[in-house]
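Example 9 (inverse folding). The structure is encoded as follows.
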């Protein structure tokens, strides 16, 4: 049975939320939506899904396109990589530079362009790096000036080499707009995939590409010689969202999930005379919760503790006299 098509009318009144449709960010994004209780069912081959319990429609898009849709106000909010936002912003700067050079007057009636970062999401960490053959003569970014560079991040690569070329000429204060509009001696070759193969195939002398573990680049005989951007997943919003209150609600829910993923709840009993020492070990996010027990001289303490520290915290609590130490998972939370 063919899936039911979603009409444009069904999107009216809904906040449009862009989600990566595939790749390294998809799975973690879906887990985040589940934790935030954003309930939906995505039919096969459909890139739009209506949320059941909130006036939201999820739009599944390539991560590289999400900053454009959000930045132009076509979509209200989205999850993508910081690298993709920086590439989009570099493209906007290049367009502004071209318009400036052609004396084109901007339309004052256009909605505010661009996107704003709402939250860092804590997954999808990677680096946009300049890579060159490991056994070659290129050991610094400036060694590739005037050479062929393969990349899918054309605008960031252009700004990176524009800055290096200016520095080579003794100019160190070029602003972003002038970097974007500079005519390069370095040739930037746009590639849509398998960028790491460009050097081996003789297409490029070096590349600018995303690196996670570095194993793919190493297998291709490449080595990093510089980092252009450090990246991870972020939640972004339009500068003119259709429903700002709903954007704030989503941000609060997702922020709660992220906090819950980082912390556990530690509970224990301790003599009141030792409470001061124990509170230094478990200060909580604001302060520990302390409750008197029926047994004189004893209190029960609850405090949020970073997951990565919990084993050491339990050891230290035991040393100061804490007993009945429990560690509980947190599924969601609100508040700073």
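The amino acid assigned to each position is listed next.
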């Amino acid at each position: 049975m063919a899936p039911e098509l979603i009409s444009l009318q069904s999107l009216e009144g809904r906040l449009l939320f862009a989600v990566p449709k595939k790749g390294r960010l998809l799975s973690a994004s879906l887990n985040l939506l589940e934790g935030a209780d954003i309930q939906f069912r995505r039919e096969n081959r459909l890139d739009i899904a209506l949320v059941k319990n909130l006036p939201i429609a999820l739009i599944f898009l390539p991560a590289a396109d999400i900053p454009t849709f959000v930045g132009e106000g076509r979509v209200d909010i989205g999850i993508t990589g910081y690298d993709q936002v920086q590439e989009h912003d570099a493209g906007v700067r290049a367009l502004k530079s071209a318009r400036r050079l052609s004396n084109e007057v901007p339309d004052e009636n256009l909605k505010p362009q661009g996107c704003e970062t709402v939250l860092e999401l804590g997954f999808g960490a990677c680096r946009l790096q300049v890579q060159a053959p490991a056994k070659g003569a290129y050991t610094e970014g400036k060694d590739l000036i005037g050479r062929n560079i393969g990349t899918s991040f054309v605008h960031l690569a252009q700004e990176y080499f524009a800055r290096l070329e200016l520095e080579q000429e003794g100019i160190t204060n070029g602003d972003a707009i002038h970097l974007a509009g500079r005519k390069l001696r370095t040739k930037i070759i746009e590639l849509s995939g398998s960028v790491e193969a460009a050097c081996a195939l003789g297409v490029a002398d070096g590349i600018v590409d995303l690196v996670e573990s570095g194993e793919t680049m190493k297998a291709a005989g490449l080595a990093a010689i510089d980092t252009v951007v450090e990246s991870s997943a972020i939640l972004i919003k339009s500068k003119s969202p259709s429903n700002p209150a709903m954007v704030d609600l989503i941000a609060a829910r997702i922020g709660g999930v992220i906090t819950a993923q980082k912390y556990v709840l530690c509970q224990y009993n301790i003599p009141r005379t030792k409470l001061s020492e124990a509170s230094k070990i478990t200060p909580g996010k604001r302060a520990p919760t302390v409750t008197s027990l029926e047994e004189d001289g004893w209190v029960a303490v609850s405090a949020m503790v970073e997951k990565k520290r919990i084993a050491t915290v339990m050891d230290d609590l035991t040393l100061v006299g804490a007993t009945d130490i429990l560690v509980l998972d947190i599924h969601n939370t609100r508040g700073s």
